[in-house]
Amino acid sequence: MQFSVSISSISIPVFLFVYALVAVLKHLETKKTDAREPPVVASPIPYVGHIIGMLLRGSRYLKSLGSRCPNLPIFTLPMLNGRTYIVTSPALAAQVQRASKALSFNPVIPEVVNRVLGLDAGTMKIIRSGVESEDERGFVGDTQDMLYARLAPGESLDELTAAAGNEFLAQLTDYKEILNANGGKKTEELLGWVKQLVTVATARFLYGPENPLAIQPELEPLFWDFDAGIPGLLLNVYPSITASKAYRGREALVKAFTNYLTAGKKSTGSALTQTRGVIADKHGLDVESTARCEVSFLFAGITNTAVTSYWLILHIFANPTLLKRIRKELELTLKAPSEKSSVRMMNIKTITKDCKLLVSTFRETLRLYSDNASTRVVTTDTVLADQYFLKKGSILQIAGGIMHSDSTIWGGDAGQFNPERFLEDSTKQKSVHPAAFRGFGGGATLCPGRHFALNEILAFVAVVVLLFDVSSVDDEELPIPKKKDDVLAIHILEPLEQVHVQIRRREGWDQCSLQLETS
Ligand code: HEM
């Protein structure tokens, strides 16, 4: 009795004190720095609530805030002693993209690369000098310019596309033999199967036959350990302990790339890889730092491609009508060199131009599974769209996840996978603001690899669709798992559960071989 009285006599003042403190803190944090600042969305826990929400619930947290305030084109999240502005309207996103100096991605670069790649002080100085300078491009700028130029439609894109297409074709032709040796079918965990194929192929067409992953195949799972632990590396709290798998994976890759570069193997890689090396040398990066940067490029080249290909393959094979239509579209593009030939020539340019349903299905995959948030720093007090005051030093995010699931943009079926959504004659599609599709980001950070990604993913998926049948292991309908969106979205979202499939050689196509036409 005595005990409970003393507890309640202490707890009431403590409760009142905490209640008053929270109220004061909330008042302080929701107080606008300028009347025109976007509406503030407070968390029940002042100052740290949104941070906790994002850490624990990833991009799902942002989407839940978005659905709590559906009519706000932009809102403010108070965090610690700063602000993060969340843009949910495509029209405002386009304005953000245009204001690339006042709302800049550049200040984010050194912070992120330092944490993710573990660069030394000398390399960080090289990276910062260009990023912070008004008049010189520096290492990062030169690399970006080169990538945008080499991966734009033209000869060098065609060259890389041909290399990628041939690599996927070779791997999948080998897989046909594996199936033969296995009685014509094999069970695979689909995401793992696709990841492995894409990782091995990409390392090969970017870095040549003696690439680090070809020499040490055990690096492939370590690459995916690195990928999975990037949020931990970004947090940067004793990463070698708190994100130990990612840290170990990264360091193993760095060591292998250092050996690759030291042995002069770069000259056996793609023209793109060789040019990257020239830029690194020009700016004085040492071998180990160059290796660290190559790990980041390998990451950019593999992760989105692999996970997008997975969802695309799964959705196509899970829908027999879609499968039939896409096969028909693809088959119409194939050519036989002679009447009796069992060879079928496949042309990637024709596929991307003529296979409208496949292209639409690809874009729908990105819409549904990309929660990408394009991040900018407010470098000077700014009034966005003559309306919203944005305070210098704050962070701004264009919330792809919110936009991609917004039924006012995409219609009532925004939550569904609709492979026809992006068909040119779809009347719905015509009214969608171009900045609403965030799959490849936008503005100054628009993905330089987007044309190449379309080419290589369509080439890869086309070969799978033409040569194989993919079904569930129990011959039931293929399940489509939910997406894992309770994580920090650093690339296309992965599935919540594994899907095991049975892969068979496609009937009637046993004797056919595909070849790539490269003009
Ligand atoms: C389906 C495949 C792909 C998707 C969905 C994708 C998506 C993205 C996104 C969302 C961004 C950030 C944009 C932003 O923050 O606004 C990005 C950046 C980037 N992507 Fe891609 N990407 C894909 C494939 C590729 C490929 C194949 C390459 C390279 C060969 C590549 C290279 C890059 C690079 C280097 C950047 C950083 C650009 C910069 O910092 O300026 N991407 N990508």
What does this entry look like structurally?
Mean pLDDT is 91; it is low at 1-5. Helices cover 56% and strands 11% of the residues. It is α+β, with helices and mostly antiparallel strands. The chain is built from 22 helices and twelve strands. The strands form four sheets. A five-stranded mixed β-sheet has the order 1-2-9-6-3, with helices on both faces. α7 (155-181) crosses α8. Protoporphyrin IX containing FE (HEM) binds next to α6, α15 and α22. Its cofactor is heme. It comes from Rhizodiscina lignyota. Keywords: Heme, Iron, Membrane, Metal-binding, Monooxygenase, Oxidoreductase, Transmembrane, Transmembrane helix. InterPro entries: CYP450_monoxygenase_sec-met, Cyt_P450, Cyt_P450_CS, Cyt_P450_E_grp-IV, Cyt_P450_sf. The chain crosses the membrane at residues 6-28, 297-318.
SSE map:
Blueprint: H1 2-30, H2 49-68, E1 74-79, E2 82-87, H3 90-98, E3 103-104, H4 108-117, H5 121-132, H6 138-150, H7 155-181, E4 185-189, H8 190-207, H9 212-215, H10 219-228, H11 230-235, H12 239-242, H13 244-262, H14 271-282, H15 287-318, H16 320-333, E5 343-347, H17 348-354, H18 356-369, E6 373-378, E7 382-384, E8 388-390, E9 395-399, H19 400-404, H20 407-410, H21 427-430, H22 450-467, E10 468-472, E11 500-505, E12 513-517
Parallel strand pairs: 2-9, 5-12
Antiparallel strand pairs: 1-2, 3-6, 4-11, 6-9, 7-8, 10-11
Helix pairs in contact: 5-6, 6-14, 7-8, 7-22, 8-15, 10-13, 13-15, 15-18, 15-22, 17-22
The structure holds protoporphyrin IX containing FE.
